[in-house]
Amino acid sequence: MELAVYATKAENSRGREYPDFANINRSPFQRDRDRLIHSSAFRRLDGKTQVFAYHEGKNYRTRLTHSIEVSQITRTLCKSLGLNEELGEAIALAHDLGHSPFGHAGERALQNSMAKFGGFDHNINSLKIMTKLEVHYPEFSGLNLTWETIEATVKHNGPIKKISNNYLKEFNKKFDLDLKNFPSLEGQVGAIADDIAYNNHDIDDGFRAGFFNIKELCELPFIHEIVKDFLQKYPDAKDNDNLIIYGITRNMIARMVYDVMENTAQNIRKYRIEKPEDARRQKCFIVDFSNKLKKEIRELRSFLKKYFYTATPIVRMDMKSQRLVEELFSLFMSNPKLLPMEQRRLLATNANDSQIAEIICDYIANMTDMMAIEEHSKLFDPHRRF
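Predicted structure:
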């Protein structure tokens, strides 16, 4: 398929941090995708919380299954808009690499713990994983991904006007990520595909966990219309809530994808996007929902907050998760000798508090939920001998 004029072309890539051989069988962005899939950080996403902690049930989304869903939606949108599907896929697979255990509760814990040491941001931790912590090659640390994949991952939430993190600051000096501008259109597609995926799988997961039912979902007018149309077409499904919830999420994903395709095409014309750089220099996202759909999404998020995100079991697990991560960090800071030898070897003899905190943060952030629970048990349970 021929790419649009505003798409990122593989032959125009700004390259990698370290010189690398060309591959005649795979484009640079396909190689990025493959390196990400083969990374240990990507595999660990299977044990990291999306909304439910890993041990709460096998049928709920994890960061890994979420990333796969984001990748699938990203490829669909890129293909329909004439964008680089291979780059979009790599960006989608990378976007959650840096998440801590226990989802946003774990991230809050590390943000609190690292407040005096430059803070914690999962996008910047993704950068660190991609450029330093994953070691697969004798010539360099990191995965040595292309500029385009790294740039879009770091700017997943948009431009970065103020750089407070030292690692990002130093990396940006040698590999300018154009932080004050928006990411590529492929990067913007990856970001909105993330929204589409989690909005819809949270409906599915929340329903299957029993936090709300179809009747309550139908309090939302647009859901009511979807269910009404579905049952008119499939009247025998009226007593099968599983079929109805699949019908709702299928319809919602299709509506959101179509809306993004249509609205983005209009924005491309409106803002006269004729080359990749044009999209980066705008003052807003080019890839976006229409105002009508944004209103529906706000209503949906409000519903999920009321019935799901603030439900007592979720809030209690968030509290326990945040406390567990904060206790691990605090204990390691008070006595770094409690760290595993692999991390202790990274500590210089005269390491200051900021350097110690960074190593501890890297160690905890890259744990799975169960790794963090196990480590906490070893350190705080007096019945454990190691």
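Summary: The chain has a mean pLDDT of 93.
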